[in-house]
Amino acid sequence: MFFFNMKYNYNGDKNMFKIAVKEALNYTRPLATGFYYFDKKLIQGLSTLIVLNENGDILTTANTASLFKLQDDLRDTYPAIIDELKNLKGRKLQKTLDSYGIKEDTLIDILNVIIDIAENPGKVNIIKHDYLNMAIIKFSNPEKVLVKNFPKFNGNYEIGESTCTLGFAFPEYSAFTYNEEEKHLQSEFKIMNFPTFPVASIITRNIFDAKENISMIELSNPIEIGMEGAPILNTKGEILGLAIGNKQTGNRALSYGITTNEITKFLKENNIKYEEVKNEK
Fold it and tell me: For residue range 102-159, what is the model confidence (pLDDT) as tens digits?
C-alpha cells in the first residue's frame, strides 16, 4: 500500500460550496488504477472513494469495486498464457492467440492503488448492491485508518436544490510500469498529483430504477471521467447522493446518482457504521 501527500485543486462557486468542498476533502479519496493491454499500451485512470467510518469502510460504485476482482482474475489467468506465448512465432503464435481470444486491445493486467486511507489494510472484501451501481469495500484488518473525519448523509432534498459533486478527474500522475519478468504491473509513483474537481448543478428530477423505485436523482451538469463514486453534496457539505455517471437527454449531457435514502438503507443492511443527519419533520 502506498501513501502520499495529495495536492487538491478546485474551482467553481467558492462562496456557495466552500464549506461543502472543505468537508468532503476530509473523507474523499482517489483510487489509482493502471490498465495494461496486450499491445503494451498502458492507461492510468482514477476513480473516487468515500470513506465512511474509523474502520476504513468505503462507499463507491459497483463498477469501481469490480476493479479489485478483475485484478485478481487477470493475474490468475494471463501470466501462464504469456509464458506459453513467448516462444511461439508465425502461424503457431496466431493460432494460440486465436484460441485464447487475445487481440492487441485485450486487457491482460490491472493494478489498483488506494491512496491515503489505511496502512496495511489486508484483504479487500466487496459487498455489492443487488442491482444498483453501488458497493461497499471493507478491509480485513487495517493497522491504522488515516482518515479522521467522516461524511454526514442527508436524505432530504428538493428539486431545484443546488449541489456540488466533488471527485477526482484529469489524472496527473505517473504511477505504473509493467514488470516483464513478473508479468504484472507495479506501482512507481513519480508524479503524484490527484486534483479534486467540483461540478456545481441543481437537482432536476427524480429517476426510477429497474424495479420502479425512485432511487436516483438527475443533475443538470455532467461529471468528468474519474468522478464515478463521488459524493453529491448540499451547501452544508452533507451527502445527498452517490454520483454514478452521465446520461444523454436530447442534446444535453446530465449526470445522475443514487439517493442518500438508498445508500443508508444499503449500509444498514450490511451493518456499516455511518452518520446520518436527523431532519425535523
Answer: 999 999 999 999 999 998 888 899 999 999 999 999 998 888 999 999 999 999 999 9
- Count H helices, E strands: the chain? 4, 18
Contact 48, 229 (CB under 8 A): yes
Above 50 in pLDDT, residue 260? yes
In which band, very low, low, confident or very high, does the pLDDT at 190 lie, cut at 50, 70 and 90?
A: low
How far lies 85's CA from each of 95, 106, 108, in Å? 11, 14, 13
pLDDT at residue 281 is higher than 90: no
Strands (E), 27-128: 28-37, 42-51, 58-60, 107-114, 118-119, 124-128
Instruction: Give the separation between CA 93 and CA 84, rounded to whole angstroms.
Output: 10
Cell of 204: 432536476
Q: Which helix (H) or strand (E) holds 190?
A: strand 184-193
- DSSP conformational letter for 44: E
Query: Dihedral angle at the C-alpha atoms of 37, 224, 136, 134, nearest 10 degrees?
Result: -100
**Is it the case that residue 207 has pLDDT exceeding 70?**
yes
Cα→Cα distances 177→172, 180, 184, 185, 233, Å: 16, 9, 9, 6, 36
CA distances from 105 to 48, 109, 124 (A): 25, 12, 28
Q: Which three cell numbers stand for residue 242?
A: 452517490
**What is the identity of the amino acid at 52?**
L
Q: Which three cell numbers stand for residue 101?
A: 481470444
